[in-house]
């Protein structure tokens, strides 16, 4: 702040005193405002912009400068919030006539890339229900569920609604009714097919009753599984498999898509299998795929 000249430093001091005396802000919050606004006002001082003449385009150019330095979107959003507060104060104090930040938009936060399992982690998870330290009476059902999730990439809400008459196991397809009751046919691999058939022959017929209807996967009382039960199944076996990541059934959906793209699958085909109405929703997996390719390049290229 020592590099700020009058009147910039005077405006900043007045605002910080306002935060302390009238808004009762903590010392830490005041320091955060001090750091962010000192940077902002120093920039305007270097641009020879008087506080009264700062326009929206000037503020946007400053935000662009922050972004160009590699500042994270969350930190930029904090800076914008501080700048807005300052300009609101300047208007209230009649130092400026117009609040130039009224049309200043926050940057859209970057979507966090979904967690995915490596091939090794996925296979360990799939093997966990039949591991020696798994004592579930329903291990065969749980094994079939995990294989189903990884093989099809269905949402957990879609899994619990799957009925036997929508399973064309010999043909290698499952009919799924997704969001908005949109219907799609999803391929299912031979491994999942064999475990589902074993579950049907050896377990489902023993627990089925008049509550079962035609649902494929049943709970201990013979009724339809809940989404929470499937969530608990996935988290339980992730612990048995020794997976350190916090995962859910949706992690297997992300893993399904990522492993397909890593293997060279067409993005449109993955979109169809996931049931995405827009290709934009599927494109997030291309970011994961590119990071995978970077790791491969680093590991195996002579100059990686």
Counted by DSSP, the helix tally is 13
Give unreliable regions as ranges.
none
Would you count the extended β strands for me?
Answer: 3
Derived structural class = mainly alpha
Helix content: 55-70%
Q: Which series of helices and strands comes N to C?
A: HHHHHHHEEEHHHHHH
Mean pLDDT: 88
β-strand percent reads: under 5%
Biggest β-sheet: count, sense, barrel?
3 strands, antiparallel
Through-space gap between termini = 44 Å
Order of strands, widest sheet: 1-2-3
What is the radius of gyration? 28 Å
Which of globular, elongated, flat, extended, rod-shaped describes the shape?
Answer: elongated
Oligomer: single chain
Describe the overall structure.
With 304 residues, the protein is mainly alpha-helical. It contains 13 helices and three strands. The protein has a three-stranded antiparallel sheet with strand order 1-2-3. Strand 1 and strand 2 (173-177) form a beta hairpin. Helix 6 (139-152) packs antiparallel against helix 8 (190-207). It is elongated, with a radius of gyration of 28 Å. The two termini are 44 Å apart. The model has no long low-confidence stretch (mean pLDDT 88).
């Amino acid at each position: 702040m020592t590099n700020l000249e009058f009147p910039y430093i005077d405006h900043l001091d007045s605002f910080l005193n306002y935060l302390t005396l009238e808004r009762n802000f903590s010392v830490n919050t005041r320091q955060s405002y001090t750091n962010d606004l000192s940077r902002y006002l120093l920039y305007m001082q270097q641009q020879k912009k008087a506080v009264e003449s700062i326009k929206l385009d000037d503020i946007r150019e400053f935000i662009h400068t922050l972004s160009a330095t590699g500042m994270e979107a969350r930190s930029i959003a904090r800076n914008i919030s501080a700048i807005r507060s300052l300009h609101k104060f300047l208007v209230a104090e009649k130092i400026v006539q117009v609040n130039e930040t009224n049309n200043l938009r926050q940057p859209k936060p970057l979507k966090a890339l979904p967690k995915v399992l490596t091939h090794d982690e996925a296979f360990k998870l799939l093997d966990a229900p039949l591991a020696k330290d798994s004592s579930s009476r329903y291990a065969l059902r749980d094994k079939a569920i995990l294989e189903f999730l990884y093989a099809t990439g269905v949402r957990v809400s879609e899994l619990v609604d799957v009925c036997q008459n929508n399973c064309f196991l010999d043909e290698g397809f499952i009919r799924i009714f997704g969001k908005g009751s949109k219907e799609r046919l999803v391929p299912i691999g031979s491994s999942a097919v064999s475990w589902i058939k074993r579950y049907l022959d050896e377990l489902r017929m023993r627990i089925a009753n008049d509550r079962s209807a035609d649902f494929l996967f049943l709970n201990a009382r013979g009724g339809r599984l809940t989404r929470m039960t499937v969530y608990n199944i996935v988290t339980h076996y992730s612990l048995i498999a020794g997976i350190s990541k916090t995962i859910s059934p949706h992690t297997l959906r992300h893993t399904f898509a990522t492993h397909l793209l890593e293997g060279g699958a067409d993005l449109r085909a993955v979109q169809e299998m996931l049931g995405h109405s827009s290709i934009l929703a599927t494109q997030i997996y291309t970011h994961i795929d590119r990071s995978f390719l970077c790791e491969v390049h680093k590991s195996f290229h002579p100059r990686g």
